[in-house]
Amino acid sequence: MSRSRVLRGAALAIAACLGMTVLPAGAQAAEPDGPALAKRLTSKVTLDAMNRHLIAFQRISDQTGGRRAPGTPGHEASVDYVVGKLTAAGYDVTTQQFPIPYSEALVERLTVGGTPVKMHMALYTPDTPKGGITGPLAVLPESATPGCAASDFAGANYAGTIALIRRGGCPFAVKQQNAAKAGAIGVIFANNIDGWLRGNLTSPDQAVIPSGGVSQVDGVALRAKAGQTVNLELKVLNEQRTSRTVIAQTKTGRADNVVVAGGHLDSVVEGAGINSNATGSAALLETALQLGGSPKVSNAVRFVFFGAWEFGIIGSPYYVSHLSFEEQLDIALYLNFDAIGSPNAGYFIYDGDTGPYGSGHIKASFVDYLTTRGVPVETTPLNHRSDQLAFLSVGIPSGGLYTGTIGAKSAAQAQKWGGTAGVWFDACYHEACDNLGNVDRVALDRNADAMAWVTASYAVSTEGVNGVPPRSERAGLRSVSRASAMAVAADSI
């Protein structure tokens, strides 16, 4: 890919909200040393080719009801598109089918004191009766973990109320179950960071009362309306469906030292999901196509396009849990690419220093590549909610790239990266406007370059300064790191 593009991008991410650390940028855009394969692959993965994949995903969405959500024709068509391309490129391609609890809002309305408030249904919430449920607004007192213990509801009468509970500290399902036990007939979750909130009740069998989410701003305003009459109406389609994950591996390279690169292929039901995550999918697909099914590599490369991220990150845990322990040991590392072309883009790298041994080296590989090209970077926590969590949970070293979604870009970030301070990294995140016009193609280009470079480098060797543990040492290391990785993943609520 050309290094001389001077196109300017805008992008988005959750920077200030997550306490990210700024890493030093290179003083000048120099060409770092690296294996010949990495140089060739990076030059062959072009923005024009990735844009063709984005157009294909947009057209699939347009032709299938405006979505590529799991369990819908749009996602099935996206799977078929990727499978067809990879098969033609000579890969061994399979798809893994798995069950999903499909959930879609047909009606979502909230009024408080007669005033409409924007609300998104919580994933897997039960319906209300037609016309909704009505009761006084009960505001749960503030604490570090509001609603996470039954005792949080002691000292007040919640019977027949609709409870307002701030996000944080435990799963949404636990909060609404405790509210229901206290007598509440519905729950409104208020975000604890900038932006709107959906909330995920984990599964239909854990969702006991109608629930939805509101933004942090609206949540603060509602706290002043305790006791006012609330009407909450939800009509939700909840049913069992299936989704698929695409798995493609090179026919060459060690099958016991596999480099896995992945991201989710699906969108939300509200739109085409072009930044989240057709950008990651397009970059992965084009990297795979240019690498080819039988490259001259030391280590096999496996490209995985996960299904059902948008319904609570289902596809990647299903995939990892269905690998035997020996098959997990055969994976040297995992690289994740989710939303890498945000319109008000930041340049974030997963902070692997806190993860299984080798994760810090993966971070260093991405940092080295981008900063030597004059692109300043920041880190984002390794427990960022995406598909690497499943790999971390079994101790597999992981890393990845991200340009941000929810959360406003700071003034310092705007000065460093361009774009607009005070505006979300992706104002169309999980909305219908996440379409072809919602991509910073300069950010996509740079991140795809980094993806191709690092993937190819590890395909040649997983040793050296930025290497990961050899196959012979993994069993002991991963059994030690598994517990800490699970704790990291649990903190991503």
Automatic annotation (TrEMBL):
PA domain: residues covered: 133-222
UniProt domain Peptidase M28: residue ranges: 246-452
Keywords: Carboxypeptidase, Hydrolase, Protease, Signal
Pfam families: PA, Peptidase_M28
SUPFAM superfamilies in UniProt: PA domain, Zn-dependent exopeptidases
Gene3D superfamilies assigned to the protein according to its UniProt record, in alphabetical order: 3.50.30.30, Zn peptidases
Residues in the signal sequence: 1-29
Biological-process GO terms, alphabetical: proteolysis
Molecular-function GO terms, alphabetical: carboxypeptidase activity; metalloexopeptidase activity
InterPro entries tied to this protein: M28_fam, PA_dom_sf, PA_domain, Peptidase_M28
Protein name (Swiss-Prot/TrEMBL): Zn-dependent amino-or carboxypeptidase, M28 family
Organism: Actinokineospora alba
